[in-house]
Design goal:
It comes from Siphonobacter curvatus. The protein is of the alpha/beta class. It is 48% helix and 15% strand. The chain has a single domain, classed as NAD(P)-binding Rossmann-like Domain (Rossmann fold), CATH 3.40.50. β2, α2 and β3 form a beta-alpha-beta unit. Bound molecules: NADP nicotinamide-adenine-dinucleotide phosphate.
Length: 248
């Protein structure tokens, strides 16, 4: 049987990159998939048709994960459309890189709002129906940078480290209700986000990765399938590192 048969999943930020791969792999494993996008409207709409062609129920929503009220409305709408919510993947994220000396207040606030507050917004709204159902899996996309820091990414690293603390706290609060909360920490994954990284920095990453290559979005999606499925039903409060062997 497909690993996610009968489950309803919501993936934020699925128009591109890792989120898109997660939505697609979830559909291939039989899940009904709700997903969000924000600025990439055409790509989001195209994904809905692609997922439906895999034979599952799929629906895209244009929704800003960093907006508290919009997140509440989204969860209400997903429950109305799909009947339940078994899996939440908080994937939406951005970078606004720069050395601290040059980092503006706006670049700090925006990254914390989109990367960290969004996880609070969606998780808070999703936990009510999950607690009622006494079942649920919340998966938050953190980063290797949130574990060990990175020059030029103080805002991003802080947001991703914040996600780890949040994930572990929520796990403790909800474990008795059979609602699990875990994080995935990707290393260097080849997407538009890492397409912005300088050639020199990419070379440094590649040299430091024991497997000597960047990861594919699908390799993160496969880890997500594990944490979304009943294969991981006794695992909560963990950070799963998917990074080609980098030690942190
Ligand atoms: P990406 O290619 O830049 O895609 C980001 C996605 O997030 C897009 O679909 C975008 O949607 C969506 N998004 C951005 N702001 C949003 C908002 N306010 N509301 C809803 N959706 C929003 O990034 P990626 O590389 O796939 O990264 C996905 C996640 O993995 C992020 O959390 C990132 O921090 C994390 N991660 C990535 C790497 C890596 O190496 N790539 C490593 C570690 C962790 P629109 O385009 O429609 O706005």
């Amino acid at each position: 049987m497909p690993l996610l048969q009968g489950k309803v999943a919501l993936v934020t930020g699925a128009s591109r990159g890792i989120g898109r791969a997660i939505a697609t792999r979830f559909a291939q494993e039989g899940a009904s998939v709700a997903f969000t996008y924000l600025s990439s409207v055409e790509k989001g709409q195209a994904l809905e048709a692609e997922l439906a062609a895999l034979g599952v129920k799929a629906k895209g929503y244009r929704s800003d994960a960093s907006d508290y009220k919009a997140a509440e409305e989204l969860i209400t709408q997903v429950i109305a459309d799909f009947g339940t919510l078994d899996v939440l993947v908080n994937n939406a994220g951005i970078t606004r890189d720069g050395l601290l000396m040059r980092m503006t207040e706006e670049a700090w606030d925006e990254v914390i709002r989109v990367n960290l507050k969004s996880v609070f917004n969606l998780t808070k709204a999703a936990t009510r129906p999950m607690m009622k159902a006494k079942s649920g899996s919340i998966i938050n996309l953190t980063s290797i940078v949130g574990v060990r820091g990175n020059a030029g990414q103080a805002n991003y690293a802080a947001s991703k480290a914040g996600i780890i603390g949040f994930t572990k706290s929520v796990a403790l609060e909800l474990a008795s209700r059979n609602v699990r909360s875990n994080a995935i920490a990707p290393g260097f994954i080849i997407t538009e986000m890492t397409g912005e990284v300088s050639e020199k920095a990419v070379e440094e990453w590649m040299n430091s990765i024991p497997m000597k290559r960047g990861g594919q979005p699908e390799e993160i999606a496969d880890a997500c399938i594990f944490l979304a499925s009943d294969m991981s039903k006794y695992i909560t409060g963990q950070v799963l590192q998917v990074n080609g062997g980098l030690l942190t």
